[in-house]
Specification:
Mean pLDDT: 82
Shape: elongated
Helix content: over 70%
Order of helices and strands: HHHHH
Number of domains: 2
Number of strands: 0
Number of helices: 5
Structural class: mainly alpha
């Protein structure tokens, strides 16, 4: 029993063995800051590369001339009229296809009843 008491750690020994909280906090802050600095540097490099690519793409592809060509080639009212005409034709074809399928079903039913 005496040995067990002597093996126990005292309160002051426990306090001495704890790390310095201020030093630990400073070390953690330093580590986190260095990680954030690395991430920020890598993001900056990536964003610069992306920005340069966008600038090159804009130089290679002249958007203004494309817009002008589209406006010149396609009159808005004409395009709308053509689309409405195509939509009408598509709906008419759809109705005709449904009628043909219905006629075929009736024909098949009639043929089945004959046999």
């Amino acid at each position: 029993m005496q040995r067990e008491l002597s093996d126990r750690i005292t309160h002051s020994q426990m306090i001495e063995s704890l790390p310095d909280i201020a030093l630990l906090e400073q070390n953690i802050k330093g580590y986190v800051q260095s990680c954030l600095d690395d991430i920020q540097e890598k993001n900056g490099v990536t964003f610069n590369k992306l920005d340069n690519r966008i600038v090159l793409m804009r130089k290679e592809f002249d958007f203004d001339s494309v817009v002008k060509l589209v406006q010149k080639k396609a009159d808005g009212e004409q395009v709308n009229a053509d689309l409405k005409n195509h939509e009408f034709k598509i709906s008419l074809l759809d109705k005709n296809l449904i009628h043909i399928a219905s006629d075929f079903t009736l024909f098949q039913t009639a043929m089945n009843s004959i046999h």
